[in-house]
Design brief:
The protein contains 28 helices and 22 strands. The chain is α/β, with parallel strands linked by helices and about 850 residues long. Strands 3, 4, 5, 6, 14, 18, 19, 20, 21 and 22 form a ten-stranded mixed sheet that branches. It has a four-stranded parallel sheet with strand order 8-7-12-13, covered by helices on one side. The longest helix has about 40 residues. The radius of gyration is 32 Å and the shape is elongated. The N terminus and C terminus are likely disordered.
Length: about 850
């Protein structure tokens, strides 16, 4: 074939661009790898699953060298992809409709029905026959021929990474990106959004259904939901009532009309698929059959991923389209057919065997020893219709640069097509996956490349935002899932716990360093330090610690207990454990977090890395260097938490989610402040050094001096830290703002305080406002104004406030009625009942 002028131009640019990229990678590989890793992490894609309450490093990598494809070659491949997508659409229509392919003898029915993706319940249901999205994996042989190696029509797997790879590499290599005239991805995503929009009316609701935070692809789903602007939900966020799908939000149940799903068929509805793990949304299939919700792609589309279909590609293409395949599949033999089985067995050693119901990313079985071969043949003899034999592929290998080490790896190109109503439109290039021979799960392909399709003309700047005016629009309020509100609530609580823990630990270490320097004040005899250590145990709730059984011994030798409170990630209340919980809750709401806030969370995580090096801090007493190092680490963590607090106040939309986060923070601050005040002032109210240290922990030294200008007095300290509604560190300040926030939450807040939340906050705020510092400090535990009794009551009420908030908004369950809350609160207010007698510690998440 003679090259056209355009094709000559493409070839003339391809070789120079390739050389420029290879030269750049050789000279600046380390710099660009570092920049790529930082950008991936900043966007939330440098991590894997959020499991075991911690974030683990994601193995996902992006190569600095893109995969280059000339436009003429891409157009030929695109034609084949489009034809295969049209074939899959026709096949979907038929296998759930008239089933003409069976009646005409095109292929055996058992080849389709043996695949677990075939869903008999949607037979003769036209609403389930549409295929909005089609995803095809292809590879290129060493001879330059493209072959289809598989399909993924249940969900557009890894499309978020294709988007992210493009955004990152275009920033890292902007000059090369412009020089290559690289075709953009924005048009594909606009068509995708248009497809979703056309599936619903202007005032209807679409959600993006993904897996939970423990799944490896959670961060991809969060990133894509943020990019597309849809609410990210998990199966537990949805419920089916009267064959309609509802989103469980803090404002009640909200109707869902379209579900853009990123979970497998078998994980959608436990009533539709037998043999599953019981997870999913019971009744979802019936809602879809009743045409009350549209699922993209529809349930049952997994039947199109059946590898047995490739054994009949040519006759299927001719039967449905009247065309010859433009894109061949990898050579396949369905072993349920006797002739194909005989042909495969005649050269079995040269083929690989695949179970048609294996996960798409599971590698075919090959290179078996005699015992394994015998066992496999036994399985095939029992159920031959469940297996295919696959020809080997001599795949193209491409150069990659990871860790500054050039290597060569075979590739798989994952392509994405969307049905625009007239035809299937392909994303230019898709996602290039480098096969690292690491089979077994969805993270098989740990390394990837961006795919650059070089255009013939200059490519204008493009954006996901539509270019035309939108005549009508609808604002969807009330789309805060209860699960998300719960995570935001605990994000606030964990952030406050982390800061309070750090402040108390820092104060303890500062005192130890100070007393180490002064040989006249031995550490064990310092009541100031002992008071601070007891406050640390109280603040972290790491009992028995420095207040329970064995406290005297630990106060004499505090190192072991302090190191445990700092480093033991398995100890509830420790610094390491609290920061883990903070990162877990933050990771669970990553789709709600801005990129700047992500950077702060990443910095916080980086600064907490020293907690993995406990062996470097074997002792603290007398070790000024270790004390100084830890104090500096604590200072940096406090700075990061302050930045997190400031960013959530100034850059987080003050909607329902923000209200729940602030409620969590203020409830936790009120609860912990009350506990610390009680711990310190019950025994040390007349020690000026203890009082000053207490003010310092509450960041209120300057406020006290400017306001009272007197010697330290426990009554004034208690007034400032407990009762002063203008001091942002005081208990009263927290309660006042809790009261204001509760009045803005969804639902009716009555003025007569009949609402359980308002009852509780009124009770605790009234109790604080009626308190007299002098009486609290002077009374003993049997008196009406005992500080100990007061502290226990406030802790009890704030714990009940958190529990009632959860019952009202976060769990969609009725509040237990076996406790007469009104009577209890009345008794507390008139001080005839002490509920602290039955108080229990609040469980942590």
């Amino acid at each position: 074939m003679t090259n056209t002028p355009f094709e000559n131009e493409e070839s003339s640019r391809l070789a120079p661009l390739t050389r420029r990229l290879q030269s750049l990678a050789a000279q600046h590989a380390q710099q660009h790898e570092s920049e790529i890793a930082q950008l991936l992490r900043s966007n939330g894609l440098a991590y894997g699953s959020v499991g075991q309450r911690r974030l683990e490093e994601r193995p996902w990598q992006l190569d600095v060298l893109p995969k280059l494809i000339e436009q003429s070659e891409w157009q030929q491949l695109e034609a084949g992809l489009n034809q295969r997508a049209r074939l899959k659409q026709a096949l979907l229509n038929d296998i759930y409709g008239e089933q003409a392919l069976f009646h005409q003898g095109i292929m055996p029915a058992q080849a389709v029905f043996a695949h677990r993706g075939y869903l008999r319940a949607v037979r003769q249901v036209p609403s389930a026959w549409q295929l909005p999205l089609c995803n095809i994996d292809v590879t290129r042989t060493r001879h330059g021929t493209w072959l289809a190696t598989g399909d993924s029509n249940q969900k557009p797997g890894h499309v978020g990474y294709a988007l992210e790879n493009r955004l990152v590499l275009s920033q890292v290599l902007p000059d090369h990106y412009r020089y290559g005239r690289v075709q953009r991805h924005a048009a594909y995503f606009r068509s995708l959004i248009a497809t979703l929009s056309n599936s619903m009316d202007i005032d209807e609701r679409c959600v993006l259904l993904g897996y939970g935070a423990s799944h490896p692809n959670h961060f991809e789903h969060a990133y894509l939901a943020k990019y597309l602007g849809y609410t990210l939900v998990e199966p537990n966020d949805l419920t089916v009532r009267d064959q309609r799908v509802w989103l469980k939000t803090v404002a009640g149940l909200q109707r869902v009309d379209v579900i853009f799903r990123f979970i497998n068929d078998r994980d959608t509805d436990p009533l539709a698929y037998s043999g599953g793990d019981g997870t999913g949304i019971p009744g979802l299939l019936h809602a879809a059959i009743a045409n009350n919700v549209q699922i993209i792609n529809p349930l049952g589309s997994a039947a199109l991923d059946n590898p047995a279909l490739d054994a009949y590609l040519a006759p299927l293409c001719q039967f449905y389209l009247g065309e010859t395949p433009l894109l061949d599949s990898v050579g396949s033999y369905w072993l349920g057919d006797a002739a194909q089985r005989d042909a495969a067995f005649s050269r079995l050693d040269a083929l690989s065997i695949r179970d048609i119901n294996a996960a798409p990313d599971d590698s075919p079985v090959s290179a078996l020893n005699e015992q394994q071969r015998s066992a496999l043949l036994t399985r095939i003899d029992a159920t031959p219709h469940s297996f295919v034999a696959v020809e080997p592929i001599d795949r193209e290998r491409v150069e990659s640069v990871f860790n500054q080490l050039p290597t060569s790896l075979p590739i798989i190109l994952r392509t994405y097509l969307v049905n625009n109503g007239e035809n299937f439109e392909a994303m230019p290039g898709g996602l290039c996956l480098l096969d690292d021979n690491n089979p077994g799960d969805d993270q098989q392909h740990q390394s990837s490349k961006d795919v650059w399709v070089l255009s013939r003309q200059n490519v204008p700047e493009d954006s996901l935002l539509p270019h035309q005016d939108i005549p009508d629009y609808a604002i969807h309020d009330g789309e805060l899932p209860s699960r998300v509100a719960d995570n935001l609530f605990w994000l606030g609580r964990n952030a406050e716990r982390a800061e309070n823990t750090l402040r108390n630990l820092r104060s303890a270490l500062q005192l130890m360093r100070r007393f180490d320097a002064d040989e006249q004040i031995p550490v064990p005899t310092s009541e100031l330090l002992a008071s601070q250590l007891r406050a640390t145990t109280t603040a972290t709730d790491t009992l028995p610690g420095f207040v329970g059984a064995g406290a005297a011994r630990r106060l004499q030798k505090p190192d072991r207990e302090l190191l445990s409170i700092i480093f033991n990630e398995n100890r509830t209340g420790s610094l390491a454990n609290t920061l883990q919980n903070l990162q877990f809750t933050a990771g669970s709401v990553r789709d709600r977090v801005s990129y700047d806030l992500l950077r702060i969370l990443n910095r916080l995580d980086d600064r907490a890395r020293f907690l993995q090096q406990e062996s470097a801090y074997k002792s603290l007493t007398g070790n000024s260097k270790a004390l100084s190092q830890l104090i500096e680490q604590f200072n940096q963590l406090i700075d990061s938490l302050a930045a997190l607090s400031g960013m959530t106040h100034e850059n987080f939309t003050h909607g329902e989610g923000w209200q729940f986060m602030m409620l969590g923070r203020r409830i936790e601050r009120a609860r912990q402040a009350t506990a610390v005040l009680g711990s310190v002032l019950q025994n040390n109210q007349n020690d000026p050094a203890v009082l000053e240290n207490l003010l310092r922990n509450f960041d209120s030294v300057m406020t006290y001096r400017s306001r009272y200008r007197s010697q330290l007095d426990a009554r004034l300290v208690l007034n400032l830290l407990l009762l002063d509604e203008r001091n942002p560190r005081s208990v009263a300040y927290q309660l006042l703002h809790i009261d204001r926030s509760i009045r803005t939450l969804p639902g009716m807040r009555r003025a007569d305080h009949s609402d359980p939340l308002l009852k509780l906050v009124t009770a605790v705020l009234s109790r604080v406002r009626l308190a007299e510092p002098a009486e609290l400090l002077a009374g003993n535990q049997n008196q009406r104004q005992s500080l100990k009794k007061f502290v226990m009551i406030i802790e009890e009420l704030t714990s009940k406030l958190a529990t009632t908030l959860s019952a009202n908004y976060l769990t969609h369950t009725e509040i237990p009625t076996n406790l007469d809350t009104a009577s209890l609160l009345t008794a507390i207010l008139v001080e005839n009942t002490d509920p602290a007698d039955n108080a229990a510690s609040e469980p942590r998440p």
